[in-house]
Amino acid sequence: MSDVAVWFDLDGTLLAFDDYGAVVEHACVEMGIDPTDAFLEAYYDRFFDAFRNYHPDPFRAGVERAVMATGSYVDAVAFVDTIREAEFDAAKVPEAVHDALAELEAADGVALGVLTNGLEEWQRGKLEANELLGYFDATLTSYEVGRHKPAPEVFARAEKLLPADEHVMVGDDDEADVAGARERGWRAIHVDGPESVGDAVARIR
């Protein structure tokens, strides 16, 4: 058992996106689809509904709804692959994040985890693509639990993965990360983005 388990949110905490909305628009252009307001609205409405309800592929559900709503044609599988590639390319990790994680990784009695809402394969893929996966002793996504943060079941599952005397959540979402963690009895540190992760780590140590 570790003295402390430090859990990090992923998107917006370890990974920065200059303009996440541009990811889907870029995929549209790459696939020869006009990213009209009607197409994007239909995509996002269905995507978020599917995501909230743990649809196995909310990205494909969003694309299929947008195609139906606008009369466009595109191969849904290829479109999702293009979105994935665009999202992975858009994610940025400041060097300060690597420095902070390396500092914690080297500390005695500290275990590191990622606790993120999202699909397991998708989120782990982003960690690996950005050379972050090796820092962590455990990763847990909301899809694996069948509940999204701030649901207590997510934090309870994390406690089983990394038993520790104390758990700390570092994240950018006041409700999902901070409120959810504190409700479970964890310490919680809010960050404004990846550039703030170093300050958060200093507060932990």
Describe the protein:
- The protein is of the alpha/beta class and 205 residues long.
- 53% of the residues lie in helices and 15% in strands.
- It has ten helices and five strands.
- The protein has a five-stranded parallel β-sheet, sandwiched between helices.
- Helix 9 links the parallel strand 4 and strand 5.
- Helix 1 crosses helix 4, helix 3 crosses helix 4 and helix 5 packs parallel to helix 10.
- Keywords: Hydrolase, Magnesium.
- This is HAD family hydrolase.
Characterize the quaternary organization of these chains: single chain
Just name the CATH architecture of the largest domain. 3-Layer(aba) Sandwich
CATH class descriptor name of the largest domain: Alpha Beta
CATH structural fold name of the largest domain: Rossmann fold
Question: How would you sum up the global shape?
Answer: elongated
Q: Main β-sheet: number of strands, strand sense, barrel status?
A: 5 strands, parallel
Fraction of helical residues: 40-55%
Q: What distance separates the N and C termini?
A: 18 Å
* String of helices and strands: EHHHHHEHEHHEHEH
The CATH superfamily of the largest domain turns out to be HAD superfamily/HAD-like
Output the radius of gyration.
18 Å
Keywords: Hydrolase, Magnesium
Family: Belongs to the HAD-like hydrolase superfamily.
Cofactor: Mg(2+)
GO molecular function: N-acylneuraminate-9-phosphatase activity
